[in-house]
Amino acid sequence: MKKVFPIIFALLLLCVCASSSRAEEPVRSESTGSSEEAPGNPPPSPIFKWVNLAVLLGGMIYLLKKPAAEFFDSRKNDITDGLRKAETAHAESTRRMNEIEGRLQRLSSEIAALQTQADTESAQEREKILQEAKHDMERLVEQSHHEIERIARSIERNIREKIADAVVDRASRTLETQITEDDQKRVVVRFLDNA
Q1: Which phi-psi region, left, alpha or beta, contains residue 33 (left: φ > 0; alpha: ψ -120 to 50)?
Q2: Angle, to 10 degrees, between the axis of helix 46-178 and the axis of helix 4-24?
Q3: For 12, 50, 57, 187, which has the most beta carbons within 10 A of its beta carbon?
Q4: pLDDT tens digits, residue range 82-108?
């Protein structure tokens, strides 16, 4: 139908041009070759021209009304569909933009929550490491105290043994020099009496 519209329009335009050029063309006499108007054909009156134009336009409107209406309806439908698609695309892009903004806000809050959690875990880990280091230090100090006490007892025992040995040695030397035979007999008798 769209192909018929330009063909009909071109034919009507050709008819209008042909009829108007015939109406305005003076009749030439064949014998003289001059362009005089024929005495039997008076020039068309302006009313005839207007009526001719009205008939021509009426015919064109009648013939072109349906194709033009179809053309404009299809253009209107195309434009309406385009507007509807644009509105749908705009609504979809707005929805997606809102969804992306929501995701970004959630992502920001999740990042902040993760940062807070990481800070909390870091503080807890630092506290745990400090507690373990303090416990290890206390354990080392306690082990050192035990080791020092053990070494001190060992040194004290060695010193006592040496002092005891020295006292016994000195006492035995003293006794050997001062105890007589009678003294020895008395010690033995006393010992036996006590037993």
Answers
A1: left
A2: 150
A3: 12
A4: 999 999 999 999 999 999 999 888 888
